[in-house]
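Target chain:
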Amino acid sequence: MEPLLRAADASLDRLYLAVGGIGCCVMLADRDGIPIERRGASADDDTFDEWGLWTGTVWSEDSEGTNGIGTCLADQRPLTIHRDQHFFSRNTLLSCTTAPVYDHEGKLAAALDVSSCRSDLTEDFVNLISVAVGDAARRIEADNFRRAFSNARILLAPATECSSSTLLAVDADDLVVGATRSARFALGITQQGLTKGLPAADILGDSANAAEELCEAERGVIQRAITRVNGNVSAAAHTLGISRATLHRKLARFGIRRPH
């Protein structure tokens, strides 16, 4: 959980700033339903500790029946368990809004929860909390994904209704080496396909034949070389290991203009 915790740190702080003022605490639980990270006001600590809203407690569905963290993990969906919707009567003063968090391979990794034991928590507030929890869970997934593929380019997948966590990791050879859970569902990407190797152009709907791809690759190399030396043909030719005359022909062929 350590990499995910590092990725989640800022989002947990941000979420707590949004909901802490109305008497809520924020918890991140592992896949077994055990909170391992928590944010809460010190003035409320005794109350939350008494109700078990603390790190190291067990909120799995097997242990506590219907509850925010355990049922979210069992059903793998965002939900709110409000007061008497809890299975055990000892939990019926709680209102818990929870969203699942998936790792960089699209596997269930954690549950993000905002809980309150205030009796005056209105339905409108619960709805706002639900949106905030869902957004924070997606941010955690995206930050964790970027950390897991720190040596790759990260692209936002052009999927219908894509979210900020619908991401692809593309290596230096333009092969897709990673995809978030939402990207896998949106684009039909499987782990088997990633293992074999998926050209990014095929996934992004920009596929071409091998000759066209080779031509575009060469054009890109020349464009970058001439841009890096601010249009100096001699310097660019030296960098590419070709003659000035050859580079001039290629510039004309590809219609590349030198920067001024």
